[in-house]
Amino acid sequence: MSESVISVQNLTRRFGDFVAVDHVSFEVEQGEIVGYLGPNGSGKTTTIRMLLGLLEPSEGKATVLGYDAFRQSEDVRARAGYMSQKFALYDDLTTLENLTFYGGVYGITDKNRIKQTLELVGLTGHESTLTRSLSAGWRQRLALGIALVHQPKLLFLDEPTSGVDPTARRAFWDLIYQLAESGVTILVTTHYMDEAEYCERVGIMRDGKLLAMDTPTNLKQKVIPGDVWEVFAEPLQDGLNALHEIDGVLRVGLAGDHLRTITQRGMKKTALQTGLDSKGVHVANIAAGEPTLEDVFLSLAR
Amino acid sequence: MNSRLFSLIRKEFIQIWRDPRTLALILVMPIVQLFLLGYAATTDVKNISLAVWDQSQTPQSRAFLDAFRSANYFRIAYSVGSQAEYRMLIETGKARAALIIPPDYANRLQEGNAQVSMVLDGSDATVGGTALSTARLIGQSYATKVLTEQLALTGRSATITPPVEVRTQVWYNPDLISAYFNIPGVIGMILSFITALLTATAVVRERERGTIEQLIVTPIRSWELIVGKILPYVMLAFVDVLEVLIIGHWWFKVPVRGDLGLILLLSGLFVLSSLGIGLFASTVANTQQEAMLTVMFTMLPSIFLSGFFFPLDAMPKFLQIVSYAVPLRYYLVIIRALLLKGVGVDALQNEIIALTIFAVVIMGAAALRFRKRLD
Predict the structure, then answer these.
(1) Contacts of A75 in chain B (CB under 8 A)
(2) pTM, full prediction
(3) What local confidence, expressed as pLDDT, does residue A290 receive?
(4) Last residue within a domain, chosen from A220, A248, A278
(5) Residue A187 and residue A54 share a domain
(6) At which of A220, A253, A281 does a domain end?
(7) What 3 state SS string does A242-253 have?
(8) Domain-located, residue A76
(9) Is A86 within 8 Å of B209 when comparing Cβ atoms?
(10) Chain B hits for A49, Cβ within 8 Å
(11) A167 and A97 in a common domain
(12) Minimal Cα distance from A84: which residue of B?
């Protein structure tokens, strides 16, 4: 076997008749930031729970940090950090008390280690603030601090940015990069498409299946079946209907104040223009669009 | 102590400290219950309010009334002149009983066949029952006295004694004070209530907030999690035991005749079984409310089937059998015996064995359900 930090083969979990995770296989190498993208209920959290030995796989095998994820889960847990989407903090404890408690649970009694962790997540100066009066962004940092207090080699982040404002999200990602640079491997789930772009590799989950896993650039090149165009038409609904009827148009969708469409590769802008004109739709502008992970997701979800 | 367990216990104490209302409840509730049960829940019947219709109005009838007055059980509260009057007093609850002395009382007393009648309000069975038996006793002893006096007047032997006399001797609580019986009961109730309820909610709170998930992914072991969660509440429960013992002893003068070390040791055994119930409830419930209701659900029957208020001997066979599954039942026997009788371990063997079995079974069942997994 290779020295992958995470190695998953045909991992499956059923809850009764429902298949939450369906024969998923992937590898994660040391120092990588791997994103796990998918809507709620697509099996992201269930996968992480199996990797931490919280749930028994119905089928398949997972090795984490060289240990069997289920049978040697105690070894995995001692070396991995986990930040759940609930930000599992004690509201009635202060920042420092929360961190000291989790530190103690990992056998860390050295006050300097706790201080370093506080500093790392930028909470110095907030030691004696009660957790319940922290903003969502600060809570997120504290939750990350708790996952990091024992200096794990591997970090699982389950929807770490849900409910956090964009500035705090950006700052959070800066921290993640910093950690990855120091050699920590990170597996992060998200349902924010833009956030997935920050990852070195992204896995796309849907209905328990891992549809693809690659770098964002490769995904866009390989998965999107054609060219992306942004069409500014008036009225939008007529434009949408008209685009559907043009030969060579593969997908059309609303995107705020304009339409986003994927056409067969090499299709000309003029072909779209004429097509729309002939249907009597007023077109203000047509521009080549930058492919996004959302396009990838939609293309895969077909 | 290992650092994981120590951290858990310290965290739990900080949380208890941060919630002063719960802390106050834990420390003050036993005192309130102690005073309530020590004073209000007394079954000692005294000063029953009595209405008297003395139609005779003679020295003889007044002497009879004096006999009632001198026994503390009745208080002659009303003097009435008609049946309608005492009926009204009893209906409105102002009088619990009425004593009617007929007009010819003095004459018939002379002849030796006087009759008085007594009407009792039986709607409160305890008061009615006591009133009934004491009225009979007062009547009998007065009759004996009158007979003795009459015989003395005729110059015959001055005393008469009944052919059989029951001489009673009450051990341990000669004055039959209710508080002596109730206060040990309060200790048992508090112990089971505090430990079961607080452990159940403390464990479920972790699940409700999602912190249990975070705890499970740490190297903490199941037993450390269980012990760390319950130990702080065991300590608080013992503070309560001492509190109730001290107030019970110095204020209510409840004797502590047994060995204090043994009292605490066997209380600890009982606490284990309560903790087991609490822990088990926490594995069944998903929210703190559910946990609380589950514990309450076990609390009420255990109070009624433990002999706390109602004697087990008087219950139907079926309920008596059910009561064997109630740990409080054994503890009440133990604590009452230790406080009032001052017995040693040998007198309590059966109860100790029963409690041990219960504690082992319920703790085992709870620990089995309380695994470090989520499914």
Answers:
(1) none
(2) 0.77
(3) 86
(4) A220
(5) yes
(6) A220
(7) HHHCCCCEEEEE
(8) yes
(9) yes
(10) 374
(11) yes
(12) B214
Domain that includes residue A71, residue range: 6-220
Decide if B3 and A109 are in contact by the 8 Å CB cutoff: yes
Is B50:B72 a contact under the CB 8 Å cutoff?
A: no
In a domain, A62, yes or no: yes
Test B213 with A86 for CB contact under 8 angstroms. yes
List chain A residues with CB under 8 Å of B215: 88, 105
- Name the nearest CA neighbour of B55 among B114, B116, B107, B101: B101
Cα B47 to chain centroid distance, Å, stands at 22
Nearest to A106 among B14, B19, B219 (CB): B219
Statement to judge: residues A146 and A41 lie in one domain: yes
DSSP A27: E
First to last CA, chain B: 31
**Does B220 sit within 8 Å of A55, measured CB to CB?**
no
All residues at 6 or more sequence positions from B320 whose CB lies less than 8 Å from its CB, including other chains: B312
Contact B214 A88 (CB under 8 A): yes
Domains (range + CATH), chain B = 3-41+177-369 (no CATH), 48-153 (3.40.1710.10)
Whether A131 maps to a domain, the answer reads yes
Confirm whether the ipTM is greater than 0.90: no
Span B194-230, pLDDT tens digits: 888 888 888 888 888 888 888 888 888 888 888 898 8
Interface of B to A at Cβ within 8 Å reads 3-4, 6-8, 10-11, 14-15, 18-19, 209-220, 373-375
The pLDDT tens digits along chain A (302 residues) read 457 899 999 999 999 999 999 999 999 999 999 999 988 888 999 999 999 988 899 999 999 999 999 899 889 999 999 998 877 899 999 999 999 999 999 988 889 999 999 999 999 999 999 999 998 889 999 999 999 999 999 999 998 888 888 888 888 999 999 999 999 999 999 888 888 888 999 999 999 999 999 999 999 888 888 889 999 988 888 888 888 888 888 888 888 888 889 888 888 888 888 888 888 888 888 888 888 888 888 888 65
Contact criterion met (CB < 8 Å) for A102 and B214:
yes
d(CA B107, CA B316): 50
Residue A1 maps to a domain: no
**Min Cα–Cα distance to chain B from A104, Å:** 5
Number of domains in chain A: 2
DSSP string, B301-370: HHHHTTTSSS-GGGS-HHHHHHHTT-HHHHHHHHHHIIIII---GGGGHHHHHHHHHHHHHHHHHHHHH-
